[in-house]
């Protein structure tokens, strides 16, 4: 098999680069995302990310949907923060109509959002462990997330896509077991979380692989619009729950988790700490659900927003979700734009990964917690 | 395994640092091993559900959204007036309501339900049809084993053949 | 100790055969016999290990593991093997056909060769070379050749990256494996595996050799895990980075060969560690506890051998399912900055201990 | 800085721009030629310091294509909206604000892809979601897709 002809001569230069496609089907892109890597040996010298493999045109679909129908589309953007996405649209519509939802609804919405956040971060932890090669974490995280999904299923009827929060309140009242189940969940998770730390956080291999890898400075985070836990790992204080409280966040104490290192490990720790933080928010709220059974205000069958444009920000598990709605007073919106957190977080990877190894790229993209349907929408 | 440049450290300190790091590393690894081996030796923690075997005991939550159903009474009567609000509310067009002219005993001509067609394959379980139904005719069923070999089986007619409107509900 | 001596059995087979045919034919027949037995053994151990690995990881992960095919899923691996046999053998466009097909065989032959020198019980050893230990080390390191060929001939960048990683890794960790075994060679004064095992009749080297032997044991476990490309050192595969590393392009039975060889290498590493550090088929003996030692003697040596081996395999599996994967540069740092220097110092200490006669 | 103060500030500093008080934000409407300059001042002026472009949306309202910038100051905690409408529908061109807010990199590619507004000086203006040979811009109101869009 010796190749003797001159045309096959391989020139071995000092800076020989080659291109490799990571994705669209790749175990660590968590969906159909493609990184076009330029490599020198194992070192990444350039990343170009290509998305759009599952672009469904949700924004276009919203233009032919009534405001109630938009809700079920938002479930499918960032499917790990389905409740929070629903809440964003509901809040935007309510703001436009000038409706004040009952206190009880606000508290329940907040509880659901925090549960979603815990569930999402648990799943992220599982998947991040997988990315790093610790295969067992996946099952531990999933096992604990299952408890949260059970709570959702009992109240909302769905495990992943709930369509539960709707303009005007909730689709229906929460299940009578709702409070009791959350009261069980909090101590259970409090018991299991130190286990996560012992298994993965403290592990020397993980620390070595994540410290000083993919350092995102605060300026970079702001300039590129990296929000959520990824931004807070770079000391970018961007928690909408703190800065612009919505629903019932104004009555609870929310400690914003901030780390200053900006590396992969900082982003990792922000997320784990946020689970603790969310649990403490849940603890504060779970006793505050007002008595009664009003779960929604009466809405007209066909909602027509007054003409104008409206913007609502909420904090999903991955960052700031913005809903920008333009209405001309008809029953369909003229334009709905979702400022999805992952879409902004993705492109910063092109800076972070350069100069690191392929294995680090996996760690960095894992620590940014990308959910591809949210990027593509 | 840490690769810090420690030029200012003396030989002995470097030596101590080397071993303290080594020991730290080993200790963290052992901690992890204790957790996994702990789970290995505690079979009570196993959470796998043996699905086809536990079918008899497997019960979904009451509100589980398996499919849209129309409940019928023992006399084969449903509550659907055929108003078509569910069809209007469905975001995916998975519901088609086909009505027919009916004549009441009083001789009045009213609209009655002929076929309530439901495309399960297109349904996204948003719950708008169930919520918006003025006469509570629709509900969510608990069935979740929907796999079929032919896509056409996913299109269902929700009202049973020969079923009539319940007496207490006024047709429009 | 004389309860279970297989040498009389093998002797009688040899004599029976000699009475029937010419010496040359006797050798051929014996070789064929041994070959067939080892092939069966190889397949059996391979299948068993795949099953055990799945069950172990399932229990670690709060799962049940395979439980559909056969009782407790025992036949699952056989079913998988049948599936792999029926799968299409894919060939990558412009791949080097000859090398592509050769690579899995090199890998599997390398692991197969080493079994011959393993002492399973007294007298139950196909090849009792006087350089047995050396033979096993050299033969198992042939695996890397197959991996490199597989990566190179696949005409795929992922494969090539995996193969290159594997090359760097195996060559470095080979040093540590050899060095840690060197301590026992110094202790026992021989490279012949049967002699090493016999030298542990009154106690295993792990216990007799003080701390240095323990350090060597730990280093051997780590280094041989790395040498067999198992997690957390599975750079060559690195599922989340390189999809499947060097065997990305392989399918069907050729993939199964790689798969089987990986498990066989793990078995070999564990068996070697058990033989050298834990006394091989020698039962557990404590000085002064005659009654206890008697009871231990009654347990057959094969049980001892496989018991020790599988205990070590369990530890190696636990490594894989607990730890995150290292990065390639950290992997090499671990070897060259930690394992190798410690190993060298360790050998010095061992020589000192042996010179002074401090060991038991 | 509260709503009114910001309004006064913007009125005094951006005399050439139309500043209005919206329901939620102060809304500024700027002509395409002044866009880049106004954006730069918004970002760099010591009293504005709008350093965080948190949303940039392309819109097609009243038959005009435009871009809406939602910007916020991370230090002074105030936000405002900048609107800019292109002059014509076909071949709509605006200046890129990538050099001011790098976050615009992705947003502008998305707007280019779905609404067909070209951005001058964008480093890598390609389609982001749709394939490169796709014809038409789906988010435009006059976009017609007989096959895939169900009109109710």
TrEMBL record, chain A:
UniProt cross-references to Gene3D superfamilies, sorted A to Z: Cytochrome-c3 Hydrogenase, chain B (1.10.645.10)
Topology of the protein relative to the lipid bilayer: Peripheral membrane protein
Subcellular compartments: Cell membrane
EC number: 7.1.1.-
One Pfam family here: Complex1_49kDa
Function of the molecule: NDH-1 shuttles electrons from NADH, via FMN and iron-sulfur (Fe-S) centers, to quinones in the respiratory chain. The immediate electron acceptor for the enzyme in this species is believed to be a menaquinone. Couples the redox reaction to proton translocation (for every two electrons transferred, four hydrogen ions are translocated across the cytoplasmic membrane), and thus conserves the redox energy in a proton gradient.
Entry similarity comment: Belongs to the complex I 49 kDa subunit family.
Protein name: NADH-quinone oxidoreductase subunit D
Automatic annotation (TrEMBL), chain B:
This protein's GO CC annotations: membrane
PANTHER family in UniProt: NADH DEHYDROGENASE UBIQUINONE IRON-SULFUR PROTEIN 8, MITOCHONDRIAL, NADH-QUINONE OXIDOREDUCTASE SUBUNIT I 2
InterPro entries listed in its UniProt record: 4Fe4S_Fe-S-bd, 4Fe4S_Fe_S_CS, NADH_quinone_OxRdtase_chainI
Keyword field contains Ribosomal protein: no
Short name of one Pfam family: Fer4_7
Alphabetical keyword list: 4Fe-4S, Cell membrane, Iron, Iron-sulfur, Membrane, Metal-binding, NAD, Quinone, Repeat, Translocase, Ubiquinone
Lineage: Bacteria, Pseudomonadati, Bacteroidota, Bacteroidia, Marinilabiliales
Gene Ontology MF annotations: 4 iron, 4 sulfur cluster binding; metal ion binding; oxidoreductase activity, acting on NAD(P)H; quinone binding
Entry-linked SUPFAM superfamilies: 4Fe-4S ferredoxins (SSF54862)
UniProt-recorded name of the protein: NADH-quinone oxidoreductase subunit I
Domain 4Fe-4S ferredoxin-type: 71-100, 114-143
Domain of life: Bacteria
TrEMBL record, chain C:
Alphabetical list of InterPro entries matching this protein: NADH_UbQ_OxRdtase_su1/FPO (IPR001694), NADH_UbQ_OxRdtase_su1_CS (IPR018086)
Subcellular location: Cell membrane; Membrane
Membrane protein topology class: Multi-pass membrane protein
One Pfam family recorded for the sequence: NADHdh
GO MF, one annotated term: oxidoreductase activity, acting on NAD(P)H, quinone or similar compound as acceptor
Main location (coarse class): membrane
Transmembrane annotation, as ranges: 31-52, 98-121, 133-152, 173-197, 203-223, 255-278, 298-317, 338-355
UniProt keyword annotation of Transmembrane helix present: yes
Family statement: Belongs to the complex I subunit 1 family.
Protein name (record): NADH-quinone oxidoreductase subunit H
Record lineage: Bacteria, Pseudomonadati, Bacteroidota, Bacteroidia, Marinilabiliales
Gene that specifies this protein: nuoH
TrEMBL record, chain D:
Any one Gene Ontology molecular-function term assigned to this protein's record: NADH dehydrogenase (ubiquinone) activity
PANTHER family per record: NADH DEHYDROGENASE [UBIQUINONE] IRON-SULFUR PROTEIN 3, MITOCHONDRIAL, NADH DEHYDROGENASE UBIQUINONE IRON-SULFUR PROTEIN 3
All copies of domain NADH:ubiquinone oxidoreductase 30kDa subunit, residue ranges: 29-143
InterPro entries (alphabetical): NADH_quin_OxRdtase_su_C/D-like, NADH_UbQ_OxRdtase_30kDa_su
Name of the protein in question: NADH-quinone oxidoreductase subunit C/D
Matches recorded under Pfam families: Complex1_30kDa (PF00329)
Family: Belongs to the complex I 30 kDa subunit family.
Species annotation: Breznakibacter xylanolyticus
């Amino acid at each position: 098999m010796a190749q003797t002809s001159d045309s096959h001569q391989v020139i071995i230069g000092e800076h020989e680069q080659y291109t490799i496609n990571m994705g669209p089907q790749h175990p660590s892109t968590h969906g159909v995302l493609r990184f076009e890597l330029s490599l020198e040996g194992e070192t990444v010298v350039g990343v170009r990310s290509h998305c759009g493999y599952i672009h469904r045109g949700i924004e276009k679909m919203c233009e032919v949907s009534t405001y109630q129908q938009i809700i079920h589309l938002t479930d499918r953007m960032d499917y790990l923060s389905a409740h929070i996405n629903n809440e964003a649209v509901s809040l935007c519509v309510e703001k436009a109509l000038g409706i004040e939802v009952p206190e009880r609804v606000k508290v329940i919405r907040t509880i659901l959002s925090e549960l979603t956040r815990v569930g999402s971060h648990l799943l992220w932890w599982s998947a991040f462990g997988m990315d790093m090669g610790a295969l067992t974490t996946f099952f531990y995280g999933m096992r604990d997330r299952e408890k949260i999904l059970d709570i959702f299923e009992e109240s909302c009827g769905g495990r992943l896509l709930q369509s539960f929060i709707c303009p005007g309140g909730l689709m229906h009242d929460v299940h009578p077991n709702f409070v009791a189940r959350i009261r069980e969940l909090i101590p259970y998770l409090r018991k299991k979380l130190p286990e996560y730390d012992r298994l993965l956080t403290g592990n020397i291999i993980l620390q070595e692989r994540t410290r000083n890898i993919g350092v995102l400075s605060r300026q970079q985070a702001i300039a590129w619009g990296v929000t959520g836990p990824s931004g807070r790992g770079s000391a970018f204080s961007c928690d909408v729950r703190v800065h612009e409280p919505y629903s019932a966040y104004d009555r609870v104490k929310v400690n914003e988790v901030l780390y200053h290192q900006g590396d992969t490990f900082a982003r990792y720790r922000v997320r784990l700490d946020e689970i603790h933080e969310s649990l403490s928010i849940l603890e504060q709220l779970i006793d505050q659900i007002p008595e009664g059974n009003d779960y929604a205000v009466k809405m007209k069958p066909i909602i027509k927003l007054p003409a104008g444009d409206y913007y609502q920000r909420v904090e999903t598990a991955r960052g700031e979700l913005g809903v920008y709605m333009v209405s001309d007073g008809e029953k369909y919106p003229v334009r709905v734009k979702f400022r999805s957190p992952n879409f902004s977080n993705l492109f910063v990877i092109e800076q972070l990964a350069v100069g690191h190894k392929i294995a680090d790229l996996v760690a960095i993209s894992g620590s940014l917690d990308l959910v591809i349907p949210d990027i593509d929408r | 395994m840490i690769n810090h440049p420690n030029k200012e450290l003396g030989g002995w300190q470097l030596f101590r640092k080397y071993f303290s790091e080594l020991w730290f590393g080993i200790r963290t690894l052992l901690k992890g091993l204790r957790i996994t081996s702990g789970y290995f030796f505690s079979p009570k923690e196993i959470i796998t559900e043996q699905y086809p075997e536990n079918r008899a005991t497997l019960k979904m939550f009451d509100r589980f959204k398996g499919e849209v159903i129309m409940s019928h009474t023992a006399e084969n009567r449903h509550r659907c007036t055929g108003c078509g609000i569910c069809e209007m509310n469905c975001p995916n067009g998975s519901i088609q309501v086909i009505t027919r002219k009916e004549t009441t005993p009083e001789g009045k001509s009213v609209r009655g339900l002929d076929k309530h067609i439901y495309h399960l394959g297109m349904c996204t379980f948003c719950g708008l049809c169930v919520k918006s139904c003025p006469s509570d005719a629709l509900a969510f069923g608990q069935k979740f084993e929907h796999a079929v070999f032919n896509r056409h089986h996913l299109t269902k007619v929700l009202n049973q053949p020969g079923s009539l409107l319940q007496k207490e509900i006024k047709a429009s | 100790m004389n309860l279970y001596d297989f040498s009389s059995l093998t002797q009688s087979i040899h004599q029976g055969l000699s009475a029937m045919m010419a010496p040359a034919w006797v050798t051929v027949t014996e070789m064929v016999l041994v070959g067939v037995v080892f092939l069966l053994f190889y397949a059996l151990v391979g299948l068993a290990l795949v099953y055990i690995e799945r069950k172990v990881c399932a229990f670690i992960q709060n799962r049940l593991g395979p439980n559909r095919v056969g009782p407790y899923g025992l036949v699952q691996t056989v079913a998988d093997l049948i599936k792999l046999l029926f799968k299409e053998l894919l060939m990558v466009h412009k791949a080097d056909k000859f090398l592509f097909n050769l690579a899995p065989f090199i890998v599997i032959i390398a692991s197969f060769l080493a079994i011959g020198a393993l002492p399973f019980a007294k007298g139950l050893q196909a090849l009792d070379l006087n350089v047995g230990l050396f033979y096993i080390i050299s033969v198992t390191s042939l695996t890397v050749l197959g991996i490199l060929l597989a990566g190179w001939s696949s005409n795929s960048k992922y494969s090539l990256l995996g193969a290159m990683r594997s090359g760097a890794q195996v060559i470095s960790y080979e040093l540590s494996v050899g060095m840690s075994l060197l301590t026992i060679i110094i202790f026992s004064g021989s490279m012949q595996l049967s002699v090493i095992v016999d030298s542990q009749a009154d106690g295993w080297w792990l216990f007799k050799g003080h701390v240095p032997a323990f350090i060597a044991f730990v280093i051997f476990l780590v280094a041989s895990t790395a040498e067999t490309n198992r997690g957390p050192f599975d750079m060559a595969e690195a599922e989340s980075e390189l999809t499947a590393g060097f065997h990305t392009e392989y399918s069907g039975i050729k993939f199964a060969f790689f798969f089987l060889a990986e498990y066989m290498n793990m078995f070999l590493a564990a068996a070697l560690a058990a033989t050298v550090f834990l006394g091989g088929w020698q039962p557990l003996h404590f000085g002064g506890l005659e009654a206890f030692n008697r009871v231990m003697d009654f347990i057959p040596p094969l049980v001892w051998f496989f018991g020790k081996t599988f205990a070590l395999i369990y530890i190696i599996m636990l490594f894989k399912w607990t730890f995150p994967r290292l990065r390639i540069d950290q992997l090499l740092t671990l070897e060259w900055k930690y394992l190798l220097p410690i190993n060298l110092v360790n050998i010095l200490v061992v020589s000192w201990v042996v010179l002074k006669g401090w060991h038991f | 800085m509260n709503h009114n103060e910001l309004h006064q500030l913007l009125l005094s500093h951006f005399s050439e721009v139309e500043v209005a008080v919206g329901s939620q934000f102060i809304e500024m409407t700027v002509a395409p030629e002044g866009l880049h300059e106004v954006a730069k001042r918004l970002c760099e002026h010591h009293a504005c310091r709008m350093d965080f472009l948190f949303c940039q949306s392309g819109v097609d309202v009243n038959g005009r294509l435009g871009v809406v910038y939602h910007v916020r100051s991370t230090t002074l905690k105030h936000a405002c909206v900048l609107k800019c409408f292109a002059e014509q529908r076909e071949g709509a061109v605006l200046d890129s604000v990538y050099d001011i807010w790098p976050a615009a990199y992705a947003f502008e590619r998305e707007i280019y892809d779905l609404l067909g507004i070209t951005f001058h000086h964008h480093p890598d203006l390609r389609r982001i979601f749709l394939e490169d040979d796709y014809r038409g811009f789906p988010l435009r109101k006059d976009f017609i897709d007989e096959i895939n869009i169900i009109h109710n």
